[in-house]
Amino acid sequence: SIRDDEVIAAADERGIAMVFSGERHFRH
């Protein structure tokens, strides 16, 4: 459904942001 797509998009954005920030912290 449209709502599911929105939820998945929001979760992906948060997940990607956490992954990138986590990688940066670990690398630095």
From TrEMBL:
Coiled coil: none annotated. Keywords: Hydrolase, Transferase. The keyword Transferase applies. SUPFAM superfamilies: Cytidine deaminase-like (SSF53927). InterPro entries: AICAR_Tfase_dup_dom_sf, Cytidine_deaminase-like. GO terms for molecular function: hydrolase activity; transferase activity. This is Bifunctional phosphoribosylaminoimidazolecarboxamide formyltransferase/IMP cyclohydrolase. It comes from gut metagenome.
